[in-house]
Task: structure prediction
Amino acid sequence: MGRRMKVGFLAALAVALIVVAAAGASLTGKHATTTLVFGASADPVILDGPLVSDGESLRPISLIFQGLVSLKPGTTTIVPQLATSWTTSKNGLVWTFNLRNGVKFQDGTAFNAKAVCFNFNRWYNFPGPLQTDAVTYYWNTVFGGFAHPATGSPGPDKSLYRSCKAVGSSKAVITLTRKSGGFLGALALSVFGMASPAALVKYQADAGTVTADGVFQPTGTFGTQHPIGTGPYMFKSWKIGDKLVLVKNPTYWGKASDPPWSRAAKIDQIIFVPIPDNAARLQALQTGEIQGYDNVAPQDIATVRSNSGLKIVNRPPFNVAYVGINQNDPPFDKLAVRQALAYGLDRASVVNAFYAGRGQTTNQFLPPQLFGYAKSGVPDFPYNPTKAKQLLQSAGLTLPVKIDFWYPTNVSRPYMPDPSRNFQAFQASLENSGFKVVPHSAPWRPDYLATVQGGGAQVFLLGWTGDWGDPSNFLNVHFGSQTDQFGFNNPSLFALLKKADAETDLEKRTALYQQASVAVMKFLPVVPYVHSTPALAFKSNVKGFIASPVGLDPFWLATVS
Amino acid sequence: MLRFIVRRLLLLVPILLGLSILIFLWIRALPGGPAQSLLGERATPQAVEQIRHQLGLDKPIYEQYWAYLRTTASGNLGISIASRRPVTTEIRERFPATIELTVAAMIFALSIGLPLGFFAAKRHGSAFDHLSLVGSLIGISIPIFFLAIILKYIFSVRLGWLPSVGRQDVLIDAEHPTGFYVLDGIVTGNWNAAWDAVKHLILPAIALGSIPLAIIARITRASALDVQNEDYVRTARAKGLSPGIVDRRHVMRNALLPVATIIGLQVGLLLGGAVLTETVFAIPGMGSWLAQAIFNRDYPVIQGGVLFLAIVFVFVNLIVDLSYGLLNPRIRVS
Result:
């Protein structure tokens, strides 16, 4: 028995090894040349633009659906898409969009002014359960109100949108309730892509029930099985946890001679595979199971670069990391103390040490690519411990001044790859500058964010990635009104930002936002310290991929050789 | 026997009730809520309040629990706040992946662990015995995620023999009537798909099965050592039975009793606890789903998922208890 068992055991091992070796033999050269397998960090929530705000949903949505306007690839410059041109009335309230002729949705429905109004009215008339930020964040943020508000939801009085009128088939007239310069830029968001009205009705896009838990459960299949737009790619199949397959739209309206943002797709098929773990995505890229992925961890960039079969594609920086200050919490209600904090933060050292050459030290909140970025007049706060101490003493404080400094754990953000290291460096420089730092940490989601957003953190690390190419998405979102997070009430700053947002003339708008950017830094509700460059990784045979600063990546321009 | 089964099933009711209260209170005691999880940096206090109101989280806790209990009693585990899909649907789609992985891990653990332990007992005190002891210690001590990363690096990245993520090559167009990918390939006659699913299981099964393997080997060895010195084994040998028959009929069968208990416990643990393996290998199973739900404060998923796993755990243990009678007729479960 003993010998037989031994022999059996060895035989089992041998069989296992043969199985492994045989398995490996068939693993090479498996991908068709016209397929791009892209590693996503999660499944999309649903493929219905206005009902999502997460990047993994918006990526495929931006390939299936198109908006009236789009962005020039790799920039935040607004370009025509389904609208070929537009005009604004003198009072800035009436926007007339001239629509592209001959465009059809992927189900054969004609794209026309009626379809545009159908979409706008659908969003404006979303039922109660869809009116929270958890579902319609972007409509809430950009348009601010619903026709039939549920309890607690904003109504028509808060809405930027008033009405949409189809004039003939190729002219859509959208009327706003107030002037908004950011309106056009926001329309480039893929959440405001045009969906086929016929499909929305047929597949009951807004049908659903509310459970006893209060959660809205969609019962229609538009967003899960029949998302139909006008884009260069169309939906083929989706199995949650497994893969989402998009294929080239054979009836796409764009031609090779069209500008890049309107061209037809070159790759036949794109497959999005959910791989939540960052290290697993890198290994899948190395093995060839995927051919690209987003948000490469900074520590993995060198690994990718050292492999001749892989490459890094930079996403233009469109974010900001900052040290936030809650002015409700003394002594930060005093400007001198906030200035002392700014002088006490060794921002340049943090950026040089922890951003692997992919960070740009900044003295203002707006990223430099965005109009409104102030070229001059921005107060600078270079690291100066002596000046920090002087300012604290001039504010009548005894050194060291004790502060509660919060930082998140269990998270890596594009603008803050390793928060604990940033914190430790800032702690050291602040303690050298007359402060006594009391550290506080919490897991990023939801603990840390709940504390910070609820006004429970005196000084904290946070950041922001822009959603669309307009300064209002940076400045107005953060400093346009009183919040628990920052705890200040500055009517003149609020008024300036409101005026800037309402301005539709780009030149004047730019000047106003430059003024606002300077005003923010003089008032110092935050100390911004870096704009970082996120990275995507690809197999080197993927060519022509242009990363968008706001994540509207034009996959249709890429090729796989 | 039937009375025993019924009694065990009835015991499920208070267990699940107690568990539901614990889980319900525990997740609500955690700081933050679904709104911050869903919106991240974009959550405003107004949005948080609105979402809390919509989800009924601003109601008294007993009202929330009563509503939850009523819904659950009707077999509805609710809708995931994050994915907006029914929890039961998600369980139906994810549980097969976890079962498949668990079965593969147990096949690996049993096929190596049982003979290893038995052989070590037979060669008690030999170099092989010592080697197996050291191997078992390493198997128990090595963190799963570390082993997983090493395995992937060697067999996927360096050698290119095995896939590193997922359950099947994304370019394979396969039907999945049952959700068990290997079985699906077989029943649909798509052998390529079945074989590919097997390949995707090899590394995760080794990573996940390493700890059960070590435990099974150790228990088998200890149990076999005890049994092989029993009087009835000596009698069997004295009767002139061949060593193979003595080992199979008298030693192994009796030695397997404690091993069966361990197998049951391990299966229960693997079904709910393959979080790291599922995450590292991007397998859409129950473990990674529940871990993500805890981060997301996805209350219906946590409540529903944990209840479901508790039921599974109880059933697995019931099966183990019943298997005692089959392994050893002397044991009467009644």
Remarks:
- Residues 191-227 of chain B form the longest helix (37 residues).
- Chain B has a mean pLDDT of 85.
